Amino acid sequence: MNAITLLDYAGVTVFAATGALAASRKQLDIIGYLFLASVTGIGGGTFRDLILGVPVFWVGNRVYVLICALVAVLVFFTAYRIESRYKLLLWLDAVGLAAFSVMGAAKGLAITGSPVVAIVTGVLTATFGGILRDLLAGEPSVLLKPEIYVSAALAGAAVFTLGALVGLPPYAADLAGFVAAFAVRGGALRFGWAFPSYKSRPGRKPEDIP
Amino acid sequence: MNAITLLDYAGVTVFAATGALAASRKQLDIIGYLFLASVTGIGGGTFRDLILGVPVFWVGNRVYVLICALVAVLVFFTAYRIESRYKLLLWLDAVGLAAFSVMGAAKGLAITGSPVVAIVTGVLTATFGGILRDLLAGEPSVLLKPEIYVSAALAGAAVFTLGALVGLPPYAADLAGFVAAFAVRGGALRFGWAFPSYKSRPGRKPEDIP
Amino acid sequence: MNAITLLDYAGVTVFAATGALAASRKQLDIIGYLFLASVTGIGGGTFRDLILGVPVFWVGNRVYVLICALVAVLVFFTAYRIESRYKLLLWLDAVGLAAFSVMGAAKGLAITGSPVVAIVTGVLTATFGGILRDLLAGEPSVLLKPEIYVSAALAGAAVFTLGALVGLPPYAADLAGFVAAFAVRGGALRFGWAFPSYKSRPGRKPEDIP
């Protein structure tokens, strides 16, 4: 099993776990756990494969769906023991984000050869599953928070792509991308890192605009 | 016209009607009815075909879009007579859910030969149109309710797939899947069936977590 | 550069600008601008290409992603000067809607030869990016407002398709479609045009239904 396959399984597993934790927060039944775990675990990669025009990864390999199902059942029976499911969700999401930013960029680069496309598919793969989870579970979207999130995926995809372009051995480029993304997102979670912003005025409600 | 084609047209028709009823609840104009009816009627099948990598079903056959348009116009002129549009919406949605759980599983099984994929495409086809409708119309998502919903689609897809694997004649497997899904969802609507749940604590709001 | 290519770049540019303006209203950081500008700028066309089963347009041509990035940076440094970002967003959205309704219909017609499919892909291409933007940015969805929106896309796609079918030269059909869509949407923005509606009762909340 090479590093990319490992990142792939790891990403699906931890994203599936975040979906199941969101299901637990919403007090869904076991099928709700299965559904959210699957959507979150395989959503980002599905979108990536559709855009790249290649067969969707889990259609040809049942292992992915079975991982999601297994994780959902496991979380269903253990989530009640966890003190802060939301914190665990955020940290697992950070691991998945880092794994998928590299995985998505690697697949995009392998198929199109274009660094620009590689970076875009890296970011999409890493963020799409979590966005779907938050949308479906009615969680506050991580996109609208001041903390750094998409940037971490961008860092991971860019570092990996750069590493691959300058000829690093695959393991090294994968690792560098993963570490870059996880360090950025982890720093944001731990220390509240955020970009300096322009402090633009907040948008008014449409009905308040004369 | 075989049983699968019949299920297909029936599913598109009733899902289009639920989209139009949602448009009526939101007091949209006629084009809003057309839009929501189309998205709901053909959304699930579109997603299924993209994932399976086959041509999207309504691109090659204009009948589907015309059904959605016809249903939208019909509901536009009659919805004001209906006493409870939401109840009608839920029951039509149950019919569509049952039809599409079988239809989606049948197409997934025919194309990939994998029972696991068949069950996933059955569930996705059956639930995706309704999820899109609720998201776009701002209705409370049926996913987050305690009542059984995704489970009904799972029951229909699983019963059909099992029936097909043990060699039931197509009509029988189709019918068994349809009846299974409709019975489960109908029971949930009529009697409030829900899975026993762990009664996990509800999730706290992110800002309340220390 | 022919008229369709021009409409394509123009549509991507103005939709990217609306995404960046939404990011400004939500006080996101620069990466949030990049993300929303890209999703809005290339979202509708991505969906169109997936449905038509052709390679996604921006995967083979990096110019589109670079346009989105450039627009995002430009808006990031200038949006604070704009008095009403929401009004500007709405008018740019109208330009993009008109450009993409023609562009989407032209591509659908060229690939399938079906006028019905051309009109549907025109409407989808024109509206999907904006719907995604509103969903992700938590803006009130333009779909649920009484003003005419989807209808404008429908007008543009239908006028273009009709023009192409009766044999207008490409430039003329493109222009007629663009003008039709922009006139309808512009009229709705300026004069509050709305369809006469049935004044159906608003939907009750599910919990209020006996």
UniProtKB/TrEMBL annotation, chains A, B, C:
Annotated source species: Aquamicrobium soli
Full protein name: Trimeric intracellular cation channel family protein
Keyword hit for Protein biosynthesis: no
Main subcellular location of this protein, as a coarse class: membrane
Positions of the Glycine transporter domain: 6-78, 90-162
InterPro entries: Gly_transporter
UniProt KW keywords: Cell membrane, Membrane, Transmembrane, Transmembrane helix
Compartment(s): Cell membrane
Similarity annotation: Belongs to the UPF0126 family.
Transmembrane found in the keyword field: yes
Lipid bilayer topology: Multi-pass membrane protein
Signal peptide location: none
TM region(s), chain numbering: 6-23, 30-51, 63-82, 116-136, 148-169, 175-195
